[in-house]
Specification:
Radius of gyration: 32 Å
Helix content: 25-40%
Order of helices and strands: EHEHEEEHEEHHH
Mean pLDDT: 79
Strand order of the largest sheet: 2-3-4-5-6
C-alpha cells in the first residue's frame, strides 16, 4: 500500500487513464469531522479507483476504513465507531449534468480541475456517521455500571424488600392467632 496520497487530484484525467490510488490520510486533516466527533486521531485507509462506468461516464470507486470517537447518547460514555464503506461517484462538471443523471446516482461535482482527496474522503466519513450514536442494544451500555454500583444497588434492594415484607407481616394478623385465642377460651 502506498503510504502517502497526494493532497489534490484531477478526477477526470485519472478516470480517462484508469488510475488507482491507495494510501493513508490523517484524520487530523479533516476540520469538519473534528467539529462533529469526539476524537480524530489516527488515519483513514483509502483505496480509490478511477475509471469509466458502463454509461461511459467518468467515475471514482472508493473504499475507506477508519475509526472515530463518538459519545454514546444512551449512556453518555465514549465509544469507538468503525467506518468501513465502499462508494461510487460519477464525476460531473456541472449541476445540470448531475440533474440529468437522477437523484439515485451519487456524484462528485468538479467545478475546478483539482479536487482535494481529504475533502472527498471527509465527505464519505461524515455520510457514514450515525445521527444518534449508541452502543449496540444490550451490550456495552450495560457494562458502564461498575460492579460496585451493582452490588450497592442489590444490597439496597434486598434491604428494602426485607423491610417491606416485615411491614406486611406486622400489618397482617396471624390466622392461627384466632385459633389459639379460641383454644385458650375453652380452657
Amino acid at each position: 500500500m502506498k503510504d502517502r496520497l497526494p493532497e489534490h487530484i484531477e478526477p477526470l484525467r485519472l478516470a480517462r487513464t484508469g488510475r488507482e490510488l491507495q494510501g493513508l490520510l490523517p484524520l487530523s486533516r479533516m476540520a469538519r469531522l473534528a467539529d462533529v466527533v469526539d476524537a480524530v486521531t489516527g488515519d483513514v485507509e483509502v483505496e480509490l479507483s478511477f475509471d469509466v462506468n458502463s454509461q461511459n461516464k467518468p467515475c471514482v470507486r472508493g473504499h475507506i476504513r477508519t475509526e472515530v470517537g463518538l459519545q454514546c447518547q444512551r449512556c453518555m460514555q465514549d465509544m469507538i465507531w468503525p467506518i468501513d464503506n465502499q462508494f461510487e461517484l460519477v464525476v460531473v462538471e456541472s449541476e445540470a449534468e448531475a440533474e440529468q443523471l437522477g437523484e439515485d446516482i451519487d456524484v462528485l461535482l468538479v467545478e475546478e480541475q483539482l479536487v482535494s482527496i481529504s475533502d472527498l474522503v471527509e465527505d464519505e466519513i461524515l455520510l457514514n456517521l450515525p445521527i444518534v450514536p449508541k452502543h449496540k442494544a444490550g451490550t456495552d451500555c450495560a457494562n458502564t455500571i461498575t460492579s460496585d454500583e451493582m452490588a450497592e444497588d442489590s444490597v439496597e434492594q434486598i434491604i428494602d424488600s426485607a423491610e417491606e415484607a416485615e411491614t406486611e407481616n406486622e400489618a397482617k394478623e396471624n390466622p392461627f392467632a384466632v385459633l389459639a385465642e379460641l383454644k385458650n377460651r375453652k380452657d
